[in-house]
Amino acid sequence: GKLGRYPPWPGKIVNPPKDLKKPRGKKCFFVKFFGTEDHAWIKVEQLKPYHPHKEEMIKINKGKRFQQAVDAVEEFLRKTKGKDQASSHNSNEEKNRRNSSEERGKQSAGEEKRKASLSEGKLKKGTGEGKKRVSSVSSERGSKSPLKRAQDQSPRKRGRPPKDEKDLTIPESSTVKRVMTGTVAGFKWPPSVSEWSKLARPSECFVFSIQPAVCYQAITKKLKVCEEETGSTSIQAADSTAVNGSITPTDKKIGFLGLGLMGSGIVSNLLKMGHTVTVWNRTAEKCDLFIQEGARLGRTPAEVVSTCDITFACVSDPKAAKDLVLGPSGVLQGIRPGKCYVDMSTVDADTVTELAQVIVSRGGRFLEAPVSGNQQLSNDGMLVILAAGDRGLYEDCSSCFQAMGKTSFFLGEVGNAAKMMLIVNMVQGSFMATIAEGLTLAQVTGQSQQTLLDILNQGQLASIFLDQKCQNILQGNFKPDFYLKYIQKDLRLAIALGDSVNHPTPMAAAANEVYKRAKALDQSDNDMSAVYRAYIH
């Protein structure tokens, strides 16, 4: 049932690669998910047998990808069953041949014993010795001790499978049947440690698993595993969205405008979680992939808004946000009483306030909801959403926010989210510039940049952000995860926010100048970590 904020997903337990370490802490199994190329370490308590929960999960999850995953499971089961039947048939034939051979051997041995017995009886008639010898021979042939017999008959030692068994799954094994039938007949979930220990091989267990937890190491794409084990899907108080409980997608029609680095990941996750989504992008070709995944195509922003209940937008800057709403065939032309518009762009408070006013003036409802994160976090559905404006609309967006992010905050009146987002990005941009400054200073003073990173990763500054951005720099890989031009834009807007309230922002101002130099060096469309190049030119 409710196994986390993401729906359960069918998978099978497999052996991890040799060089992949098992996470510390609670017992985990390495799971390969059907219908994807995803693998992850999943905690025992987040796994359930496939067959007893199959129908229940299919009713809950209507998404196209989920159905494809179930189809992949069934196909795997059919192939495996066919192999098992062929193997069983061959085994039976071999057993029959072996039994026949043994029977002939026994008959031959019995004849020889009879002849030997008669011969000995003639030589030692009346001594009784012949009887004793026959008895002795018979005794020796069947004299194995009970312990020895038990050892010979016992199956292969339980525990870890042999190294050459890379993808062991025997879905119809007696062990799995025992666990599955137990589930139906009062078997408690999660199973106890002793119950799990009954598995002959962990890889024999088919599972429905949520897609995340703290104890994971992903091989391809990072799966998102919720740390909490139980909870509610409702919005908590006034600050954050609950991050656990299965997502039940809203029955409202969702529109999405803008399929850039962030928007693409958001739409993908909305579709995965079963939402009905209509998309539009200025470059129409970007819509094709999402149409294949089940999205509908909108010809203009106005058409999307007029045909959907809630329309989200995520564009690059204040000018783009205004043009989208106020321009030809824009959002405003599709707004009617009751229509909802959620702007997820990172812009200044004045811009978002102006947009809110024109939307509300037409009878629409407005929410600002900029997101903190990058392309990878967007793809993983692990963004942080900062929302402000119509509180009722915020609650209506609950399932959407859970699909795209790990948590959300409601910050009150329109403008508050924009201000908070600029402050967050100001801190992030300044920190990135400082990282680049430290790495270049290490280089010019003859220090190892890799050693500097190793030291930082062992100290209080250790973070995924620090490690990823330093690795980008050391490898010379500046593929955009967060465009440099956008972090510079956010620094500029944050400085203007400080100026509006006479608050000094000297650190942000200094960082802004470094990013401006990087832009002059044609780094605008690279990742923000390319600010490093401003220090080496």
TrEMBL record:
GO cellular component: chromatin
Protein name: Cytokine-like nuclear factor N-PAC
Record domain PWWP: where: 1-53
A molecular function GO annotation: NAD binding
The family this protein is said to belong to: Belongs to the HIBADH-related family. NP60 subfamily.
Biased composition, class Basic and acidic residues, residue ranges: 79-132, 149-169
Domain of life: Eukaryota
Any Pfam family hit: PWWP
Taxonomic placement: Eukaryota, Metazoa, Chordata, Craniata, Vertebrata
Keyword Cytoplasm attached: no
Any single biological process term in GO: transcription elongation-coupled chromatin remodeling
Keyword terms, alphabetized: Chromosome
Compartments in which it is found: Chromosome
Annotated spans, Disordered: 1-23, 79-176
